């Protein structure tokens, strides 16, 4: 497989399995300028943002993904407190958060109270990230 | 060329059938379907089988029990749309002229998981972040109440209608009525949804016989002609998605109405995907039964029950009849066949001539759903 097989501006990656289930060697977020940012990616050609990062653009299939940071604030679009789960302790609250630059992420919500369309901030520790109301954070 | 028709149908009562295998669930359903049109297993030229959790060769495990063999058997997984996708495959094969008579089965056994929410695929990043199906619909419900200025009573009233309809259906898993207060006071599942706003866990099977028009006329049988059979996958986005405007259902409905040359006002009966009570309200608007913003009024005005504009979910829907996921698309078609051929008993929608079934499938990051299947039908007498 050679680069000549790809359109201009695209990079090849070996025609081998993408190891997207490999244990993460670093957290999905970083601390910058006092805020928490998610480490995602964006396609150079289409501008489509993704989180978690991936190797191909989900709109165009392009392989020109570059690391991009998203945060530290966003807007809570919708949320629900879950009382039944086989995977984790209940209750827990999750919600869709719209971040700047057109990215929506499913986030764990801590604190509250919650309302649709309220401003929220990303928060995190060494291990994980979550979302809190902007006023409380 | 004239579209194929369903000429026979059968199902078993949905419920908790822990002692039954997939064959044990589906064989009585397919035997009832064959009996209803006086055919035998030897008449079947092709089998399609929709399921989500049956494992390898589910269709073959069922068909071999009744002496169907040698013919093509195709297994279809499309999550909750598996049964309806199997119906589409059977319709397409008959329409192509390759076969005259096909059997479409839908079957699933959810009690094998011991209860709780539907097991989703752990590879999905949102599932790893805590997504379960009730939470997806809970978020839709919360957004609906927020945007429309409604209280949870409207969610309870969907369940109340479903249970009232289901009380007249001997095939329904829940056969008792509930009050608004009982629905609101039930234990919380995913706020604002309570247990009685969610479809139950259960097992079931359903089967239909699809015939070419020539074969149907040769047999001299009434039927439900399939005037549209539409399957869409969702379009993923990593950005904003309007949770009250599911593009997958809206686009499927547009294509189905266009294919059949009819509009929503022409429909007498609909079986739609009310896995959670909020879904019915959202789908009223997505299927254009009412203008955007009018779904609560449509329900409250009694316009989607007997005596209204169109009877939605006369079976009791997934909320009352039950939702063994891969079975539901075929079970909806069975219910419609019974109404269009005057065999629905106490819950018959009088004079039903045109009908729709609608079922979506799957919880998958970035999409409304992974699949949506819409079929339209016309009575052939």
Tell me the span between the first and last alpha carbons of chain A: 50 Å
Secondary structure: number of strands of chain B:
12
> Low-confidence parts of chain A lasting 5 or more residues at pLDDT below 50?
none
* Oligomerization: heterodimer
What sort of overall outline of chain A do the alpha carbons produce when their principal axes are compared? globular
Number of domains of chain B: 2
Residue share in β-strands of chain A: 35-45%
Average the pLDDT over all residues of chain B and give the rounded result.
97
- What is the H/E order of chain A? EEEEEEEEE
Segments of chain B where pLDDT lies below 50 for 5+ residues? none
Query: Which of globular, elongated, flat, extended, rod-shaped describes the shape of chain B?
Result: globular
Largest sheet of chain A: 5 strands, antiparallel
Strand order of the largest sheet of chain B: 3-2-4-7-1-8-12-11-9-10
Which sequence of SSEs, written as H and E, runs from N to C of chain B? EHEHEHEHHHHEEEHEHEHHEHHEE
Detailed description of the structure:
The complex is a heterodimer of chains A (137) and B (381). By secondary structure, chain A is an all-beta fold. Chain A has a domain at 73-133: OB fold (Dihydrolipoamide Acetyltransferase, E2P) (Beta Barrel). Chain A is 0% helix and 42% strand. Chain B is α/β, with parallel strands linked by helices. Chain B has 2 domains: 5-113 and 203-226, Thiolase/Chalcone synthase (Peroxisomal Thiolase, Chain A, domain 1), CATH 3.40.47; 125-199 and 228-380, 3-Layer(aba) Sandwich (Peroxisomal Thiolase, Chain A, domain 1). Chain B contains 13 helices and 12 strands. Chains A and B meet through β3, β5, β6 and β7 of A and α5 and β5 of B.
